[in-house]
Design a protein that fits this description.
The structure is a single chain. This protein is α+β, with helices and mostly antiparallel strands. It is globular and about 50 Å long. Strand 1 and strand 2 form a beta hairpin. It is built from two helices and eleven strands. Strands 1-2-9-4-7 form a five-stranded antiparallel beta sheet, covered by helices on one side. The structure holds fe (ii) ion (FE2).
């Protein structure tokens, strides 16, 4: 099997990229094959569960970069046609996303610490509208190292993710069905959402 496209930052020793290479190849194949996002994540979540057992074989120091100002997104892989992307996210204590959705399916695996997800539920019926949005707070999920979660779009998966100040750093892998270079953020006070660009570090 030839190495996946844009596997920058990995050690191109066949012994050390096998787990990631296998994961990317299978993810790309299933992503192409399955038209329903729910079918994609059904297959890819167990593959992520396997992948995170082998992070020591492919995560490099650059994938653990962090920033005291905000959580950090470090690119591990992107498909040439931008149909898939995989990131290592590093969450220092007290760092959170805004309230957001992704407009994509996604699979998340935690490799260090405890990642917290706080859910929101959209009550307003027109789920495509960018205003007149009524959100209520939902439950939380605590994902320890070794845990995997996933989401699908439409209706949007709306949440906040991060680490409270009293917990140590968390690191998680995030696979998406597109380049995740923008997402929708919500303003509860005004009942609106807007698309914003989000940064990442190249490997
Ligand atoms: Fe998210």
């Amino acid at each position: 099997m030839s190495p996946p496209n844009h596997l920058a930052g990995t050690n191109h020793n066949s012994m050390t990229i096998t787990a990631l290479e296998t994961f990317i190849s299978e993810a790309a194949a299933w992503s192409r094959k399955r038209t329903e996002p729910a079918d994609c994540v059904l297959v890819l979540a167990p593959l992520m569960l396997d992948l995170i057992e082998h992070v020591d074989t492919f995560l490099q120091p650059q994938h653990y970069r962090s920033d005291t100002g905000t959580y950090t997104r470090n690119l591990i892989y992107k498909a040439l046609d931008e149909s898939l992307s995989l990131y290592a996210l590093v969450w220092l204590p007290g760092q959170w996303t805004p309230i957001h959705d992704h407009g994509s399916w996604g699979v998340v695996g935690v490799v260090e610490g405890v990642l917290e997800e706080r859910s929101y539920v959209r009550l307003s019926p027109d789920r495509g509208a960018d205003n007149g949005i009524e959100l209520v707070r939902g439950g939380i999920v605590l994902l320890r190292s070794g845990a995997v979660t996933s989401f699908v779009p439409n209706p949007d998966h709306i949440h906040v993710t991060g680490v409270p100040p009293e917990r140590p750093r968390a690191v998680s892998l995030h696979l998406y069905g597109r380049m995740m270079s923008s997402f929708n953020i919500y303003d509860i006070g005004t009942g609106t959402r807007r698309r914003v660009d989000i940064a990442h570090n190249e490997s």
